[in-house]
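Aim 2 progress update. The chain analyzed this quarter is reproduced below.
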Amino acid sequence: MALSKNNPTTTTPYTVDHNVRIGHVHLKVADLERALRFYSGVLGLEVTQRYGDGAVFLSAGGYHHHIALNTWESLGGSPPAPGTTGLYHTAIVYPTRAALAAALRRVLAAEIPLQGAADHGVSESVYLSDPDDNGVELYCDKPREMWPRTPQGQLAMFTRPLDLQELLKEAPLGTGLDSGPRDL
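Predicted structure tokens:
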């Protein structure tokens, strides 16, 4: 929906409260159990609640939910066709580089193909798709004092190759699939 030229929100500057954050993402999936094996079995998110056979809520650290999965309008459905609008990816932020490395090790052990990996200056990211072809970014932020900036102090993010072998060296032992569910 485009904003009207007469709408005051287009001319009056507004900055959202600095405590506002993105709360969760709710994904339509074709097969709830298959999606659950990925988000819980591989990525390790915990199930916080199920709504019958049609939905499940998952989180990290006991939050009510970071990701919700449902089949209410998508049971047995197909992913959107390339070139259509919609969600580009869900980004899951890990607290440390070692935690990101552990997640990467589990993804590789599950033989989930990677679509990319990048150093963005402000973060390090690994890209893949879930079983319903929804884009997923696994990343960890770099400390703010390491973020690249222009001489004027503006943020200067970039995209450069990420050395996955170096990243994997930081994964704690026992973080492959052998340390998680065997039902994949």
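The domain at 88-173 is CATH 3.10.180.10 (2,3-Dihydroxybiphenyl 1,2-Dioxygenase; domain 1). The beta strands are 25-28, 46-51, 55-59, 67-70, 90-94, 114-119, 123-129, 135-141, 160-161. These observations will guide the mutagenesis experiments scheduled for the next reporting period.
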